Amino acid sequence: MADRPLIAITGASSGIGEATARVFSAAGHPVLLMARRLDRLQALSLPNAVLKQVDVRDRAALAAAVADAESQYGPVDMMFANAGIARLGDIAKQPPEEWDEMIDINTKGVMNSVHAVMNGMIARRHGTLMMMSSIAGRKVYPDHTVYCGTKYFVHAVSESFREYLAPHDVRVIVLSPGIIDTEVLDGVRDETTLANYRANKEAIGGGISADIVAELILNAYNLPQKAIVQEIVITPTRQKY
Known about the structure:
Blueprint: E1 6-10, H1 15-26, E2 31-35, H2 38-44, E3 49-53, H3 59-73, E4 76-81, H4 96-115, H5 118-124, E5 127-132, H6 145-165, E6 170-177, E7 180-181, H7 191-203, E8 208-209, H8 210-221, E9 231-234
Helix pairs in contact: 1-8, 4-6
InterPro entries: NAD(P)-bd_dom_sf, Sc_DH/Rdtase_CS, SDR_fam
Organism: Rhizobium anhuiense
Keywords: Oxidoreductase
């Protein structure tokens, strides 16, 4: 059993999820890392890590992963509901199956992640929900139609969860990044949208490192439980928002 509490992260195989796993592990926390790409989790080689191949659309698999990790390291004290996908594209030309994928992963996946830990946090009167959103959850962008809708959803349910959970001393923090250097563009299949995104990214001097975001998450988590950073908004300095 580790001295520090267990941290659970979905979408932990790359990007902000991977960076957050590394930062919390370096701080001495055991980590439950969940993703569809188990080989990427194994390649991290982090100590005190429970690795689970989980698709966040599978509520039962997610809950089972949490239960297994908690049996080894005690209760999850922070759930980072990070897993998501960005199928950006021209809404009139985009296959509806891409809408379904974003809605299922970015909204239902977040709810499944919360569901796996919320009642335990209420019972213990302690815990933090870190909810991955985006600046696209506050402002709409071209070719982001359904993606923006999923991120507006995260903002809305997070505010409702925060009001519900605050009397139980459980914190709900929304993370709203701008352009970060991750694999997010791997999900974009619309060539025009992809070219426009890359041109905008280049025009502002590129994105910022996921490590910077991970450090912010750790700092917010490390505040006393009675203090909460309700939302973290971080973008490149030159990005308009």
